[in-house]
Amino acid sequence: MRWTRSPYDRAALRAGPSAAPPRKRTALVTGASSGIGAAVAERLAAEHWRLLLNGRDEDRLNNVAAATGGTALPRDLATPDGPARLARDAIKIGGRIDLLVAGAGVGWVGPFADMPGSQVDRLMAVNVVALMRLVHGVLPHMLGAGGGTIVLIGSVAGIGVRNEAVYSASKAAVHAFAEALRYEVADSGVHVAHVVPGVVDTPFLDRRQIPYTRSRPRPMPPARVADVVWEACRHGRDEVFVPSWMRLPGCVRTVAPELYHRLVRRFG
Ligand SMILES: NC(=O)c1ccc[n+]([C@@H]2O[C@H](COP(=O)([O-])OP(=O)(O)OC[C@H]3O[C@@H](n4cnc5c(N)ncnc54)[C@H](OP(=O)(O)O)[C@@H]3O)[C@@H](O)[C@H]2O)c1
Fold this sequence. Notes:
Layout: H1 10-14, E1 26-30, H2 35-46, E2 50-53, H3 58-68, E3 71-72, H4 82-94, E4 99-102, H5 117-145, E5 148-153, H6 165-184, E6 190-197, H7 204-207, H8 222-235, E7 239-242, H9 248-255, H10 257-267
Parallel strand pairs: 1-2, 1-4, 2-3, 4-5, 5-6, 6-7
Helix pairs in contact: 2-3, 2-8, 4-5, 5-6, 9-10
Bound molecules: NADP nicotinamide-adenine-dinucleotide phosphate.
């Protein structure tokens, strides 16, 4: 459990919303202008965190910043220097970053053959390259400070979902990155958590080409994912599925791959 070696006061983290912590811890949250990132910002604000919030849409980002007492840092993470600049600015403005929640992400649904090449580039730029470059910008600061927490938002689609080939591949990359990085920084005081949501009721579902129309799994509120993000930070969890039964398909694929592939072909 890494909190003991981190510079944070673990007792203060456990104290709950009513107790004021000895000093404000600072979190950088991407994807904060919408959905899960905005819900994470609200959750952290309730725990007295100082917030640096990133998104692209300035109006929505400013609304979240106003509601949470955070500072808006609007930047496009898909630009070549966007993530590095955000990391630099956040460290300069915040003085420190104790927690990074990398929530920015985009999806695309449909047959891969129909996916415009520009969308392949954009999806991988936001979901994979920007996420890694942002961690690359923040990690040396955390290592220098002797600790910190990095939460990467993955997806159950990382297992490989029909009609979401590139999105699935991007989230599989996030999974492997989280795992590999966690081994690498294991003794440094930096903790890497991978939060893996199922279907979440956010604008994400409408921003894809084909809206989500399945009755099951029913989309869950983003606040539920935000609670899990917070619990992963508090308890130093490595990988958390939301809901927890979403871990099941991966287990079935490992122990009974043929059965798994038959079920996927049948039920999608
Ligand atoms: N919703 C789901 O069912 C679901 C399920 C599993 C995993 N996830 C993952 O959860 C994360 C958050 O998704 P969500 O559901 O909260 O989606 P969302 O409501 O669409 O929010 C996506 C966020 O990413 C930001 N973003 C996108 N492109 C960006 C760019 N180029 N530069 C900076 N920010 C950018 C958006 O900013 P602007 O709006 O300001 O452009 C927005 O704040 C994503 O990584 C997604 O893959 C979602």
